[in-house]
Amino acid sequence: xxxxxxxxxxxxxxxxxxxxxxxxxxxxxxxxxxxxxxxxxxxxxxxxxxxxxxxxxxxxxxxxxxxxxxxxxxxxxxxxxxxxxxxxxxxxxxxxxxxxxxxxxxxxxxxxxxxxxxxxxxxxxxxxxxxxxxxxxxxxxxxxxxxxxxxxxxxxxxxxxxxxxxxxxxxxxxxxxxxxxxxxxxxxxxxxxxxxxxxxxxxxxxxxxxxxxxxxxxxxxxxxxxxxxxxxxxxxxxxxxxxxxxxxxxxxxxxxxxxxxxxxxxxxxxxxxxxxxxxxxxxxxxxxxxxxxxxxxxxxxxxxxxxxxxxxxxxxxxxxxxxxxxxxxxxxxxxxxxxxxxxxxxxxxxxxxxxxxxxxxxxxxxxxxxxxxxxxxxxxxxxxxxxxxxxxxxxxxxxxxxxxxxxxxxxxxxxxxxxxxxxxxxxxxxxxxxxxxxxxxx
Length: 442
Hints:
The chain is α+β, with helices and mostly antiparallel strands. It has 9 helices and 12 strands.
């Protein structure tokens, strides 16, 4: 069942319940009102009959004068005593119950009941007479009441059917208008799935929940478009960067294949070049994998003692270089994946050691959830300080140097993955200061 049909059925069901409750309540109140009116009529007739009976002397005088011109002509009367003997009656004998006998004895003032007499439903009032041991039963058919209630019942059924049908049709029409924005959104999603075109946002013409849903859908399309663009750039740049070492490897290997009698020293140079290119290719592939890793596929972040982690990275680099590394730190904790954070900081140190003069010190500082690495190299021009964080970007002076151009891009990628940032500090003097910042964990 479609959502539109469900809404129509739901509205029709609610209306049916409401109409049924209202109609039931109305019928109950109409029945009670009709019975009260009938009971009031019986009480009026009973009052006149009781007063008439008080004026009569002997019981044998009840018959003609009681049921003649003195008696009401719209009710049925019956006089009986405490033994159930009928003294006078203008109808077939009315059934006398124990409660009726109790009224004749004077135990009750009066009582009203409904009984069937001769195939007719009768409303019967029993009231005591002024004569001791006598009571009168005054009855009236309930045809008018039953006919009225039957008519009201038929009208209620008609109203119920018309109301439910009208509610169902109205609900179907209203649901069609309600689901129209959802239908448009569904068509747009299907169109994106078929055409793979995420650059066609849907038009937002309302500010309610459906408008917010459409705006969220457009934001999702924008994110998908940006992700596809980044993926395309990554593949394009990666293919370009991978082509260089692969071409060099092929050239050297083909040279060895074509010239089996190569001098040993030349052969060794070619092999060293091959190994160097393989190392470059391995590092490039590793960095590409890390850079292309979806942050949602990474391990769960955990509390990391940033000062201890940076200290371990500094110690490892200090053993591999002759340049002094000056390290200062204050204890702080951040939330991150240790392996990724370690790789980012290692890239920062590698970049500083590559550009700093051999004897120049490298300053590493950890404070308030940030890591700052300073070198004494040539520095980065202000107009390139954002571009160096782009994938495969390499400055003019760095194109002849080894490297993939992914180091700082990985640094920023790791920082942003855990709610932080990475940037080049604007400092005077020679050298470059790269800062990675992550939110502290208290």
